[in-house]
Design a protein that fits this description.
Elements (H helix, E strand, L loop, with lengths): L1 H22 L4 H8 L3 H17 L1 H9 L3 H21 L3 H15 L2 H12 L5 H12 L1 H5 L2 H10 L1 H22 L18 H9 L2 H33 L3 H29 L4 H20 L7 H14 L2 H10 L6 H29 L5 E2 L2 E2 L3 H23 L11 H4 L8
Antiparallel strand pairs: 1-2
Helix pairs in contact: 1-7, 1-8, 1-11, 3-6, 3-18, 4-7, 4-18, 5-6, 5-7, 5-11, 7-18, 8-14, 8-17, 10-11, 10-14, 13-14, 13-17, 13-18, 13-19, 14-16, 15-16, 15-17, 15-19, 17-18, 18-19
């Protein structure tokens, strides 16, 4: 029972992490009007989250392996709370950036430390399945950041809405501090500081080409998926179809629902059916690429069931990125599990940060001068030019996924796999 309490508390904080990841899309027009920003500046505001998330993954992994998940997650909740309140009260764009910096500092360690908790409390053969369940529950935050958040913003405004999120985060942080333990009571304690042997192990990990292939694969998924669902999806739908931000938000929420379903389904398929990582990752990448081609070929899009199904499909197939984390965990010795998953996870978010600004620059370069309520309005051709980069990126992702090599731990017997990392010297 104790392991489920630890998992639930950490996953609830991860839900708030994914909420912050997607929430700016709903208020994109409000932010451009409130701070008189262009697309590239809004992309920069969104990318702060991703830059910090990516750059802090290795330190987050070290904290997971040394300081422990409980204290790290509690500190994350504190930073996220402060960032949400500061962002809600921001009188200017620089202050809004400062709020997003605090949020970025807080969200960065959450997933890696949640994975560390899972590795300590659950058997190795259930790892990908538990990661899928974590993604399913955690990415409810992405769903809530769509249509439901749009309704809240319409009712009370974006500032009160973010302050409410800050208050909820503070409550979750208190629960984490009181309820979570780093590992079962019977498990051997880990050192509180970085052991000398950790650095040679980490250096060997960085020289392993298999890790870099996984990083490139996850980066491609992150860049393509987040490009649309984090910031530019709602402005695209509202400006090219004429729907309200609330209607656009509910359409994008199907992407979050697809991701929520794809996590446990692909995890079960990898753990129990195929008993490998490479093929499920490759199939997910191929399907995601095909859906991007369908997306671009179907423009202009019409709101309705067809668009909702397309969003759900993009979300479902993007969940293949979670298997990259499971594969990275199995390629490393136990003492560097946090670092290996952090490296793969962080590289993906760093790529997503860069692409947000690139897309903003592409949109601004094709802006024709139209504005509504103080926000820039971009033509369909500008959005299609920007989103075509996602198709190019996913084509390269398929190539990287084809060459993935894995540890082969899933080909062992269940008895051999329980409690092992799959790492072989």
């Amino acid at each position: 029972m104790r392991r489920w309490v630890a998992w639930a508390a950490a996953t609830l904080l991860f839900l708030l992490v994914t909420f912050h990841r997607f929430a700016l899309g709903v208020i994109a027009a409000d932010l451009m009007a409130a701070f008189a920003t262009a697309a590239v500046e809004l992309g920069g505001l969104a990318s702060v989250y991703f830059y910090l998330y990516g750059l802090l993954q290795l330190p987050s992994g070290i904290l997971a392996d040394t300081w422990g998940p409980r204290r790290t997650l509690a500190a994350s909740a504190l930073l996220m709370t402060a960032g949400a309140f500061l962002f809600a009260a921001a009188p200017s764009l620089p202050v809004a950036y400062a709020g997003r910096v605090l949020v970025g500092l807080g969200v960065a360690p959450v997933l890696v430390n949640t994975l560390k908790l899972i590795s300590e409390w659950f058997p190795a053969r259930a790892f990908a399945t538990m990661v899928g369940l974590t993604a399913m529950v955690g990415n409810l935050g992405g769903f809530l950041a769509g249509g439901p958040f749009a309704l809240l913003v319409a009712a009370v405004g974006w500032r009160v809405s973010f302050a409410t999120v800050g208050a909820l985060t503070a409550v979750v942080g208190g629960v984490l501090l009181l309820a979570v333990r780093d590992r079962p009571a019977h498990a051997a304690a880990r050192p509180a500081s970085v052991p000398p042997a950790l650095w040679p192990a980490a250096a060997a990990l960085l020289r392993d080409g298999r890790i870099w292939l996984l990083l490139m694969t996850k980066m491609g998924f992150d860049m393509a998926f987040f490009a649309f669902f984090v910031v530019w999806g709602i402005p695209f739908l509202t400006q090219t179809t004429g729907v309200s931000p609330t209607v656009a938000g509910f359409h994008l929420s199907f992407g979050a629902l697809g991701f929520m379903l794809g996590g446990p389904v692909l995890g079960f398929l990898s753990d129990r059916v195929m008993r490998e990582r490479r093929r499920p990752i490759l199939l997910s990448a191929l399907a995601h690429t095909a859906l991007w081609a369908l997306f671009l070929g179907s423009a202009p899009l019409r709101p309705g069931a067809g668009l909702a199904a397309l969003m759900a499909g993009l979300g479902f197939t993007a969940a293949g990125l979670l298997l990259c984390l499971a594969c990275a965990k199995e390629l490393s010795p136990p003492e560097t599990m946090g670092i290996s998953t952090a490296l793969v996870n962080g590289g993906g978010f760093f790529g997503a940060a860069v692409l947000q600004i690139v897309l903003g620059a592409v949109l601004d370069s094709r802006w024709e001068g139209a504005m509504v309520a103080g926000a820039r309005v971009y033509p369909l051709a500008a959005y299609l030019k920007a989103f075509s980069l996602c198709l190019v990126i996913m084509t390269g992702t398929c190539l990287a996924a084809f060459f993935i090599r894995e540890a082969g731990v899933l080909r062992t017997t269940p008895a051999e796999a329980i409690g092992t990392s799959g790492y072989k010297k």
